[in-house]
Amino acid sequence: MQVVHSIADLRTRIKEYRRKHDQSVGFVPTMGYLHEGHVSLLRKARTQSGLVVLSIFVNPLQFGPGEDFERYPRNTEKDLQLAEAAGADLVFMPTVDEMYPTPIRTTVSVTGLTSRLCGASRPGHFDGVATVVSKLFHIVQPDQAFFGLKDAQQIAVIEQMVQDLNLDIEIVPCPTLREADGLAMSSRNVYLSEQERKQALVLSQSLEKVKEFIQSHPSFSSEELVQLVSSHISTAPLATIDYVEALGYPTLEPFEIGHHPASIIVALAVKFGKTRLIDNLIIQVRK
Ligand code: AMP
To answer: Which positions bind beta-alanine (predicted)?
Structure first.
């Protein structure tokens, strides 16, 4: 496994690989502090791509004022061990100056899909995501890029960007990996106190409740689903709900009772102290 810090170096190595091999280049963009969720993306890439490129970059552009950019967890040594064990070939770890040497004057903005969920509660977040992912796509020029469904809105946004900008990249969505007790793996889980960690279980539990509810109710409203999730989360005294929404997926459009689309997402963001966690359930619904 090779580790590179400069864009020029990365480009040279990928070009060299392409010259020598007639195989695809797979790309896994991350912000580091890797866990099994990230590892699952790398493993998936390993099965589908000839060259597996991982990027580790905490992107300041996607953090709002007062968010956790400065204190975002970092552990390069452990990241590199996990990356190597999962089969990464090339790790790109640029500095902020390497990615943004001058103040950025060109950004990528995906409209519509970003007006709800995390787009509404973190203004500018998805412009930051779409811009950095588009820069990374231009640098790496992958054939496939692997993203986790834990960030389902991010996948919808990236797929739209790829379609709108005619990027020749296959977006591969990968399932959410969870801890044994159900909590979705996240680099931010490390912020949780012991009490918060225990209470954070209400998130995955509430989504399980929705799943059971949908399976036993042929007709339901989005309000019923939201109510079910919110009332269960409210049983945790340390939880503050940022949002709970039930929408069509990947359109992220609201739906009326009896007219739900074939695929729906129930998505939530909840704060425990300063730590904001997200989770979701995407479910295919019988008509
Ligand atoms: P991050 O480092 O949090 O920006 O995440 C990098 C990639 O890993 C994104 O595509 C995430 O959706 C994905 N990811 C994060 N957590 C998980 C998880 N628990 N299971 C699967 N993928 C994940």
So the answer is: 62
CB distance 30 to ligand 1 below 6 Å: yes
Domain ranges across the chain: 2-174, 187-281
Q: Which fold has domain 187-281?
A: Pantoate--beta-alanine Ligase; Chain: A,domain 2 (3.30.1300)
pLDDT in tens, the chain (287 residues): 999 999 999 999 999 999 999 999 999 999 999 999 999 999 999 999 999 999 999 999 999 999 999 999 999 999 999 999 999 999 999 999 999 999 999 999 999 999 999 999 999 999 999 999 999 999 999 999 999 999 999 999 999 999 999 999 999 999 999 999 999 999 999 999 999 999 999 999 999 999 999 999 988 999 999 999 999 999 999 999 999 999 999 999 999 887 788 999 999 999 999 999 999 999 998 76
- The CATH superfamily label for domain 2-174 reads HUPs (3.40.50.620)
Nearest CA to ligand 1 atom 6: 30
Q: Is 259 a catalytic residue?
A: no
Burial of 257 (0-12, 13-18, 19+ CB in 10 A): exposed
Q: Is 148 in the pocket of ligand 1 (CB under 6 A)?
A: yes
Taking the complete model, does pTM exceed 0.85, yes or no? yes
Distance 37 CA to ligand 1 centre (A): 6
Amino acid (one-letter) located at 202: V
Asked whether 136 lines ligand 1 (CB < 6 A), one says no
Integer CA distances (angstroms), 130 to 158, 192, 198, 249, in order: 7, 28, 34, 19
Distance from the first to the final alpha carbon of the chain: 48
Catalytic residue among 5, 21, 38, 260: 38
